[in-house]
Amino acid sequence: MQFKPVFEKRERPVLIAGPCSAETETQVLHTAQALAPLGIDLFRAGIWKPRTRPGGFEGAGVAGLHWLRRVKEETGLRVCTEVANTQHVYEALKFGVDVLWIGARTTVNPFSVQEIADALCGVDVPVLVKNPVNADFKLWLGAIERLHRAGIHRVAAIHRGFSYHGQSRWRNVPRWEFAIELRRLFPDLQLICDHSHICGRRESLLQVAQRAMDLDFDGLMTEVHPDPDRALSDAQQQLTPTDYQQMLSKLIVRRSETSVEATPTDLQHLRHLIDEIDEELFQLLATRMRVARQIGAFKAQHNITILQTARFNEILERATEKCSALELSKTFIETLLRAIHQESIEQQARVMVGALQAAKG
Ligand code: PEP
Ligand code: MN
To answer: What is the position in ligand 1's atom list of the atom closest to the CA of 104?
Structure first.
């Protein structure tokens, strides 16, 4: 798949900002008037709000589209809103909404995404695709593919984190590896970080925005409200326009690398070291697996099960005791050892099958 940029390439990050929900005409226009001088690229406001439970504010509906049209006329800003079905698409396009976004609760449903893609067939409007609520990479990819097949090539992805059962410092756990993989697969797909929905609270917005910049995201989507505490949705995570401006002023935007020739020699040297160390690691792992295969042959001969839980626990425990002295996180050590252990089991299983076949002659 090849994509066309939704946003012009610039030195600074792409900025999408605006309230979680369009609540009143005054609220929408005040926010837009405060944001326009900051040079944002796109004004956001939810018109139809997907609320987890009924009874909350479910959006202003079509009335809000009139307000967005006024934003365009009075500030010159481009505007975007969330669409979840064909009706939303038709209404939004009728009112001249410049960019559409598909929300996390819609990306999870291929029927809804296909419905939107069908409604957009032959329409040249950019679409931003949020990751699905659950951490399923293929659903995110599938939604992007459905739009691409419908001829929508101006597509960008929005990383808004994944829901999580249990205690967490995040509203939606970032799982950055999803965004990194999307970038690896589709380098020309623009990637926006919706740090508001990742954080769920104002305090950590800058920190997460900075992480997004350091991971080479193209831009940020931020919820901004003139009176956040009184917002009808997502009150805890919205910023006033002044706080938004302040957050932006603290953001360090680093340059993303362009070519190997442009890489400073010090960095080239360190990367060379990393390559050598990786090579040693692979050799060591290969040696470790050779020994595992010998163990497999021994177990086959003496009728011993491959899995020896007590032994694996002992290895895990010994390793995790050392992790802080080694300056490695416990999670990393455990993940690594589990992967090595799994491969070792597979290799031993192959040896056992081989031994059985040899015995049968
Ligand atoms: C939103 O952007 O206000 C929204 C509802 O987001 P999400 O789909 O990421 O939950
Ligand atoms: Mn919101």
So the answer is: 8
